[in-house]
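For practice. Supply one:
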Amino acid sequence: MSHATASTITMPVDVEHIQALLPHRYPFLLVDRVLEFSANKSLRALKNVSINEPFFQGHFPGHPVMPGVLIIEALAQASGLLVQLSVKRDAGPQPLYYLVKVDKAKFTQIVSPGDQLILDVELKRMLRGMGLFTCRASVAGKQVAEAELLCAGRAAG
């Protein structure tokens, strides 16, 4: 399967292309679509929050709320997509990016089934295989969470 270079990416990026870039799979793939992308700068993605998500069975029965840690994970996956979409693809193994630090996390509104979670990530800087990202999640134009994330690349395998 050939991958497009960062300059030839067509929006929106669908889930099949996302799965080619991230190792996550159901029930842990938390990005459904990339809506906007600027190489090495920013990315906007979408997560459709469904009552069928397995975590809603226990968080919380009768009052389903998306766990904050999963919102952070969705932002980390969006950050990984920004890096993966920005690099030129070759035939060799691509590094995996791991979440290594979360700073300034803040949750300001509940995310419920039926919400469309918009994930906005900006690359602040890349240094020695690590990326620092400023991240915001929103629903219907209202911010629901924010954090700074540090992700480190490591060879797959």
